[in-house]
Amino acid sequence: MAIEVFNRREIKYMLTDADREALLAIIDNYMNSDPFNKDGKTYSICNLYLDTDSDELIRKSLEKPAFKEKIRLRSYGQVGLGDKVFLESKKKFDGVVNKRRTNFILEDVYRYFDSKEIPDLDDPQGISSRVKMNRQVLHEIDYIMHFYPLKPRVFISYDRWAFFEKGNSDFRLTIDTNIQTRRTDLRLDSPAYGEQLLAPGQWLMEAKAFKAFPLWFVHFLSSRKIYNTPFSKYGTEYKQHLAKI
User: Fold this and answer.
1) Nearest to 17 by CA among 224, 179, 197, 222
2) Strand, helix or coil for residue 231
3) Nearest-angstrom CA–CA distance, 203 and 20
4) pTM (two decimals)
């Protein structure tokens, strides 16, 4: 989960309870569980999605352009002010996702959001002494932050099972449940809570790879008549938010 830069295709599928059980019944034959799924349990991911006051990024994304981008702050579970988090840019062009991230300390990134001033990475007593940061990624994100400008707009959390194919780290599967969203209390040091994004009995699966998906997975999808579906957590949240206005 600490990879800072990568490119891949991400295809999403909506599973029923029966689909999920059928997949879990065979997945150990082909894939290893993520180390963070200890004892077969999910791990929690929390995100703050950044956008303009007019929600410009997500509105553009929903128009299905050839190129789209998002900026988010991510933690694994609820964290404290002194804990490490990840500031990420996620861009998609022609079906290929490019994700770039840098480490941050939560209280430092809050300060960055408030001041709009990029941290001094050359200060020996500054932020770089507390966490290793990717300078290039930070400057790229800082440019986007000021170009729009951006601020935290939506909190989205979920519980995840993740799997890596045996002998092929290029192919990864994730299954998300308990997707919760809110537009208040936009902090990662607050507990995960909010409105449920999926109906009971629905599970969001993502297949992630740069190369072709393995045959066993293609056969599984075909046998269950599972088809890819466009689904964005942030996009779905935004459409539900608009429906309430």
Assistant:
1) 224
2) coil
3) 7
4) 0.92
